[in-house]
Every structure is written in structure tokens, then in C-alpha cells.
Amino acid sequence: MRKKIVAGNWKMNKTFSQAEDLLFSIADRLQKDRPEDVTVVVFPPALYLELAKDVSTDNDFSFGAQNINEHESGAYTGEISAAMVQSIGAEYVILGHSERRQYFGENDNVIAEKIKLALSHELTPVYCCGEALEERENGHHFSVVESQINDALFGLEEDDFKRIVIAYEPVWAIGTGRTATPEQAQEMHAFIRNCVAAKFGKQAADMVSILYGGSCNAANAAELFANADVDGGLIGGASLKPDDFVAIVNSFPK
Ligand code: PGA
Known about the structure:
Layout: E1 4-9, H1 16-32, E2 38-43, H2 49-56, E3 62-65, H3 82-87, E4 92-95, H4 98-104, H5 108-120, E5 124-129, H6 133-137, H7 141-153, H8 158-161, E6 165-168, H9 182-200, H10 202-207, E7 210-213, H11 221-225, E8 232-235, H12 242-249
The protein binds 2-phosphoglycolic acid.
2-phosphoglycolic acid binds next to strand 8.
């Protein structure tokens, strides 16, 4: 069975003490209320990874970085490497987020480099893909997503691919309050799984977790997660509210 995952992408939010409060609040709620078969991952700003590690030691969530640099190490002021993230005990890294593509000029060639580096440091990449509004309106959403996963993921070996998580995040749904309908999400997730099956075989496709992201919240998570190919969510805004985040963790069909 593939993993069910709920991941919280905090983006550039929270001061140290606020981050501490949020981590403890999440941990506390998870201890009381949490299905055992759901993997919970938090992605705080890198500055707080060690804090996440300390809080998660006794509690049942994993943590990861929101980004890594595409180089192993060296003169890249301000950047954070895969080795650093690994050395702090993180297990995951978000790569290819639309905000990195849009504001930091990342394309799938750079993202592919980062994915290889992450895998070589035992980090699980959460690879984000998704079309812009105009692309959906023009009916190009399938071809856009297909070329994103082709360029970033299909240069991997089948064995490497086993350690990948995919997040479908339509850009028009991120931070907008406009969520994909459950039908739109299911349709695209099934399409992505078919692309993976065509490249790496049915077994690999059946094993890869595909998360939905984009204005997923406590009110709509259950109807999204009820779909056969939606294996959880990558949550932005709602991951900053502990009650909502843990409610999302508990939104899988029983
Ligand atoms: P959102 O962000 O839930 O605030 O729309 C999701 C994401 O960017 O990962």
C-alpha cells in the first residue's frame, strides 16, 4: 500500500517562538487524535529544522526542508545544501514548488538536479507540479503537468523513483481559496499515475503517493482525500493553524 501523507508547508512564516508554539500545538493534538497509517510531515523554514527535530523526537511527525540548493557545497551565500538538511535529521524536501519556479526562476532542469542531490542524501523529494490558470483555461493542463514530470522525474532510475512523492498543486489554487474540485483533482492524479505507469510500470505507479495541494483545508480535505488517487495533501495556509492541520490529518476515509 502506498503511504497516506499530510504535509504542512509553512513557507516564510513564523518567528522562533511562534514556530515553537505551533510545533508543540501540532504535536500535542497529534498525540490525542491521529490515525496511525497517516504520515505527517512539517516543512518549517530551515532555521527551525532543529527545533522541529527536538519537538518531533517524542512525537509522531517527520520534518523536512522547503528547498535545497542544486550544488553539493561551496560559495553560495545564503543557500542550504542537501547534506546540511540530511545532517540535521530531516527526511523530506519540497522541490519544484510553484513559488520557487515563479519568484526564483527555477525550471525543471534545475529541479531535476536538486532531486538527484536530495536522493543521494537520503532525502525524499516532494516534487510539486501543476498548471497555471491560463493553461487550464486553454485546456493545456494535462500536457503541462506531463512535461513537468517528464523533465524533472523521468530521468531517474526506477529504483530512485520509489523514493519520490508527487504533489499536484494547480497554481491557480495555491493561496487563493479556490480549490480544485474533487473531480479535477482525481482526474489529474489518475493522469499522473498513468504517466508514471507508462514510464516505470504499474507497480511503481501504484506505490507513488500523489498529494493534492492548493487551498486544501479542514472543510474540503475529506472530499478530496476520498478519491482513489489522492493520497493526501500538501497544505500551506491551513498548516499554520494546528486545529485545522490536525483535522486535515484526520480527513481520510475510515
Ligand atoms: P495553500 O498552499 O494551501 O496555502 O494554498 C499550498 C502550497 O503552496 O503548498
